[in-house]
Amino acid sequence: MSVFPELVTGREDDFGVRAWRVERGSTFRGEASCNLTERILEVPLGDDPESRVVRAHELMHARISPHSLEWARHFSDVSPRALECAEELRVNTLIGRLGFDVSLLHDGSEKIGGRRLGRLGEWDQAVCFLLAVLATGAEREYLSGVRGERPEWMAGLRAVRKRSLDLLDATSTEVAGSTAFDDDGVPSGYAQVTVVLARMVTQAMAARSPQGPVALRQFRRSLEPGGRRAPTGRFATLCFDEPAPLIARMRTGGVRRPRPISSGTVMRYPGRLLSDPERRAFVERAHHHGGIVVIDQSGSMDIEPDELQRLLRRAPDALVVGYSHRPGDQGATANAWILAQRGGVAAPRAGNVGNGVDGPILRWALAHRRGSEPVFWVTDGQVTDSHDHPDEALTDECARLVTGSHITLVRDLAGVQRAMRTTTAKRTRDHGSFGRVGRRILENTRN
Amino acid sequence: MGFELGGDEVAQCWRDVGDVMASGLLRVLLYGPPGTGKTFAALHSGVTRTPAERLVCTEDLSTGEITGTWMPAASGSWTWREGPAIRSWRADAGRGGRLVVDEVDRASGDALSTLLAMTDSPESARWRNPETGDWVVPGPEFSVVMTTNLEQLDDLPDALRDRFPVCIRIDQPHPTAVAQLSADLRAPALGGSLGESSRRVSLRSFYAFDQLRRRVGPSRAAHLVFGEHARNVLDALNIGALR
Predict the structure, then answer these.
(1) Which of left, alpha, beta for A394 (phi over 0: left; psi -120 to 50: alpha)?
(2) Which of A99, A134, A155, B40 is the most exposed place for a label (fewest CB within 10 A)?
(3) Residue A114 near residue A126 (C-beta atoms within 8 A)
(4) Contact: B194, A17; criterion CB under 8 Å
(5) ipTM over 0.95
């Protein structure tokens, strides 16, 4: 039995007609492939119906799949794995429409695979792989395996399944299989089907598996075109921008901050003669140059360059970082950046809509703290996940960091200057004005 | 003849052939997979007056079949009948014509030696007619095009390679030949010649399939032409024709 990839023509891109190398594969998952870059087709060469449909699957890749991914930068918001699985679905759909029996596309490993993903709790991989087996003979077995370990995932998976099939049903074979380049230089069938599916699935992968009717409704809406991303329940990965050039600043005096001392000329704290074992009742005004300032630059929480300059006159050695995450971003867009670093200052830059990395940036700041220098968090008190949804667990995580590591909450940069001048720790009840984080701090204190 | 070697849609190999023929170069070797029209081009390209002479090499090809042989005459005597190589030397009133040597890699040692003599440079090539004793030399316009299905020319003798400084690999059927097929088979026919030998589908097979399917339908036509490969050929054609 042989296979004839050279006869598969009809592409409208720049793939050209050249010879292929055919290698013997098998009907087992992962043992058949179509390498469009080197034109190597690995397929089973048996005369059985299963081998035939696997050959058809790989030949369809040769017919419609992109041979170059130079334009992949356009899809930085889409998981590469989701693109792979969505392409499998497009290919399987089209060979099914040509009359090939896609129910034969299974190798018996799917149930075990589904069970394994459930056991490991890999919801994202479970969603992604669903696309690869959707509408084939492997789908039922796969879902059965997942259900055995994670019955609570099934509603979410069914929602992804329905949305994917609806999208394909609404797309003609001509559109889905087109390899003509669109305005961005991307094969249009790939752009209109694979990328759309992959983008939808990328959101579903990042989201939490929906539990309960409200969450399920929210999840379903997130799968619709333009739908808001569903909650993920976790922060995004902290991704710092390339270091911006820092301009050295004139050193100024910094903040003169009063502190109690056991000798001096002015007895500022007479009460300490009774309460302080070291009897530090006098005052000394010490110069403070540093501190770490973490600035939430999401939404309306933007900063004025003049305010930053004023702050740095007070604390010339401060380390100032801004952060804001683009909801759904997979790491292509930086979500944190240095605004000033121990004497140098960079040009301020705008944020990216969401918070998304509140917890990671606070941890980063604490890791860079020198001794007992103060850490200030300029925030409105909102804490959101990587899809910019408020989240109770993440809020609690940040509240515990604030109280446990003595981070000072401030509303704006002017507030940082005021806070630098005082030795008095912010009273717990003052946190009440800091949104969810503030309320959580109060609750934690009461408990 | 309808065989044009030019135009933007023509593959590079055919443009190379066109340029070489147009330059008046008289020794060309065309090689590559079968069924791409090498012989057709050799017979027709640059041949304007006398039809080209053709030799198809086999292991049994003898020297006599190249240069000529004694034949019994009605009078009981013998007459010398010249072979295609000498006829092409003398063709067109002594100016020389085209000699096409097909599948040169299959020629035996004796035949190859004779071919080397026949295809030598005009200054060196000469042959004595055994009947008249006259020396014969190739006409000034005598040209030779050899073809072979070899993919690597290392298998050809160095002396032969030396006589053919220009070797062109023909890896695609000529569009003029492909254009005679139905529109849906033209692109697959161009691709079909490119696979490795066990998967190659020649232009002749496509001609036959095209003609047969009009009468008996594609399945039966594929079965008759492609045999055990029929289903896989049809699968590939159907996937390629996705609309």
Answers:
(1) alpha
(2) A99
(3) yes
(4) yes
(5) no
